[in-house]
Amino acid sequence: VIGKFSIRLVPDQEPNIIIRQIVEYLQKVHLRRCSLNRLQIKVFRDGRPFLGDVSCSNYRVAYEALTYVWTKPPDLIRDGATISMATVLREQTDRDVVLIPMAECQSFAHEGGERMSVRNYINGIKVFASYMAKLKGSKASCILPKAFEKH
Questions:
Q1: 127, 98 Cβ separation under 8 angstroms
Q2: Which UniProt keywords apply (predicted)?
């Protein structure tokens, strides 16, 4: 039997600590059962949760772009996504990162039946264009490295 599960971490949890605790617990339960089966645990991906700074002007500009295109303010939620590249980008560039969604919750993101409506696709392009235009006109110093500010 093969069992697979996924665990979403919150910002104050460290993946290595959680992995160690889960492995220890599973091994303890397996030993207690005195099973003749063997237990093998593989971690396929571990990443820290992404948590952006919503007080940054980058978020303000994204909020304005989303409101402009969709004609209503966005719901600011923390959806539990573990997008390791966003965390790496923030840490390596020392700049704020904002994740702007294009799909809906019902889009089955990262699953076999992943899909996006044409409406969301078109509006997503509009949001990105609006975001870039508003970003250019803002004084969002926390966004672009100095090398990009003149372009």
A1: no
A2: Hydrolase, Metal-binding, Protease
